[in-house]
Amino acid sequence: MNRKELEPDSSPQAAYGARLRSSREARGWKQEGLADQMGYSSSHISAVETGRKIATLRFSRSADRVFGTEGTADTFERQWRELRNGSLLEGFPEYVGYEGRAVEIRLFEVGIIPGLLQTPEYARTLAGGDVQRGAITPEQAEDRVSFLAERQAALVRPRPPMVLVVMDESCLRHAVGGAKVMEAQLRRLVEVASLPNWVLQVSPFEIGARRAFNLPVNLLTLADRSVVAYAESQARGHLEREATAVLPMLTAYHQLQAEALSQATSVAMIEQVRKGIS
Predict the structure, then answer these.
(1) Mean pLDDT of the chain
(2) Domains (ranges, CATH) in the chain?
(3) 70 touches 81 (CB < 8 A)
(4) 203 pairs with which residues across the strands?
(5) Averaged pLDDT for residues 249-265
(6) Cys-Cys with 8: which of 15, 26, 188, 190 at CB 3.0–4.6 Å?
(7) Cα separation of 246 and 231, whole Å?
């Protein structure tokens, strides 16, 4: 039997696999035995142990259940989250930490519905498209949707943040999935617009060169009234905390809101698009 020697220090993924193997061997279990307990195949266990396959949230929670590490300070789930965050765009993991405790959230998006407003079906369709293109694995797609659900759930708290959203009109016009997915997603936007802590506006195509941003922008106001900004390109993200850089972005956002449609007119446009596809 060939046994691949592991190098835990070579990467977070290798460290995860090495821990899984050592935990299994400490109990005298074969890969087949662990696979039966976790609900996976032995080949899947082997692939995770040797770093050929990335663990998922479901896999990590199953490992915690089997090894009795649930509720401890050093769970497989915690290690998985560190592993997953390491593959995210630079600055994004830190941004999400701020997002979960922001008192005001300002978003601008082009092309797709902002993540915090996406329905699970819409999010799965987007992730599924990336799987079809070979950009991510099905397991990573599952993790992406789960991660988004966690971010959305973090906004539901006793004192929820004020969330202000400006969407380019392309967000409404860009069809993601079939009519059923889009109809439900647009209906979700209308429902959210009725909530007291959300303001939704559409930046119409007619705004032209007066649109302040050409890329998605997130601005967070924290409890101490400081503001952080996050923006990303296709390849990298950047978290900005320096006031000299953030305040001009905040000014540009206010200008964008002034040019965008009012919430009532925006909702009317969303309803018009929704009826056109239903």
Answers:
(1) 90
(2) 8-86 (1.10.260.40), 92-117+152-277 (3.30.870.10)
(3) no
(4) 168
(5) 97
(6) 15
(7) 11
